[in-house]
Design a protein that fits this description.
Elements lengths: L9 H15 L4 E5 L6 H7 L1 H9 L5 E5 L9 H11 L11 H18 L4 E7 L6 H16 L3 E8 L7 H6 L3 H7 L2 E4 L5 H13 L12 H5 L1 H5 L8 H10 L13 H16 L4 H4 L2 H10 L2 H23 L1
Helix pairs in contact: 1-3, 4-5, 12-15
């Protein structure tokens, strides 16, 4: 109802598996990249720390920083203040000199690492494509200072790059030494591909979720109560929704056949709320209705934007080479 929820999906699990592989192999930095609205931020905000902690059977020392573009106001003091806020430092908003903020940040990170029982800390930078060269260089300095204290900082960048972009271009914004430290490895974040993965997402509304809280009811049962009692299950309509999503792909779309989580969540939410409003679930899930729902989600426009952005990046890169 409020959109304040996140469903577990196969792409999220693949992301966690890849991060765990990099942690096991003591990689200092790497990049997860993929188009906007595919579910990367939701994975970071709601799932990564919990699933990694379960995997390693320990609470991993982790800081998640959602980078924002400060524009002309960008400064080293603001940079440290943002990281202090992401690290949940109680004095993150206090007025301090840049050097004092740096010391506060380092002490905070030492403390987090010690709580984790080890000598390493994970920093996840969401929206890393907006990082400036100066910010990367400031991060290199922090990395070096921690290294002198035998504390290893693992930097994982989450970037909104298209399927066709070269992740190394993001690293080169900060220079070769930034790439060498933080971005020698990369992995693409995938959309929802195939009937099985779409069925997994739609089944998440039918089971494994709860609304209202403490009710024991899933999202489908809690929102579309009468339809649920009559046998309606969202997962039962996976083939029809998949067909509508495929039909909504723009002409000449060169990307892989996988869909943004934003589109799927919009469609499932729309279906449930229409049924909750009194519409017959058979009418709402008809091929014509699902086609209209997919169209209204902006599905075609989003995929067209992914394609257009990739073409612009390619042309710009080729122009720079020439």
């Amino acid at each position: 109802m409020t959109r304040d929820y996140s469903l577990y999906t196969p792409p999220i699990q693949r992301m966690v598996d890849q991060l765990a592989f990099w942690i096991d192999n003591q990689v200092e930095g790497a990049t997860i990249y993929g188009p906007s609205r595919y579910g990367k931020s939701s994975a970071v905000d709601h799932w990564v720390q919990t699933l990694l902690s379960e995997r390693f059977q320990n609470t991993l020392p982790m800081v998640v920083w959602s980078h924002t573009d400060a524009g002309g106001a960008n400064s080293v003091g603001r940079f440290y203040a943002s990281l202090l806020h992401a690290s949940k430092h109680p004095l993150a908003k206090a007025t301090r000199s840049p050097l004092s903020r740096q010391h506060m940040l380092l002490e905070r990170w030492y403390s987090l690492a010690r709580r984790g029982g080890g000598r390493f800390l994970i920093l996840i930078i969401d929206e890393a494509q907006g990082m400036t060269q100066r910010e990367w260089l400031w991060l290199v300095e922090l990395h070096s200072l921690l290294e002198k204290e035998n504390l290893r900082l693992c930097v994982f960048s989450i970037a909104s790059l298209q399927f066709f972009d070269e992740p190394m271009a993001l690293a080169m914004v900060g220079g070769a030494h930034v790439a060498a430290r933080f971005m020698l490895s990369s992995e693409r974040f995938h959309g929802i591909a195939g009937l099985d993965e779409l069925a997994c997402v739609m089944a998440g509304y039918d089971e494994g979720t709860e609304w209202p809280a403490q009710s024991g009811l899933s999202f489908t049962a809690g929102v579309a109560t009468q339809a649920w009692a009559a046998g309606f299950r969202l997962e039962s309509h996976v083939q029809a929704l998949h067909a509508a999503l495929v039909a909504g792909i723009p002409p000449n779309y060169p990307g892989p056949l996988e869909f943004p989580m934003k589109t799927i969540a919009h469609c499932c939410r729309h279906i449930l709320l229409r049924i909750a409003g009194g519409a017959d679930w058979r009418d709402v899930t008809s091929p014509e209705s699902l086609s209209q729902i997919v169209t209204e989600s902006g599905h075609r426009q989003l995929l067209a934007l992914v394609t257009a952005t990739a073409h612009l990046v390619r042309r710009s890169a080729n122009s720079n080479k020439s």
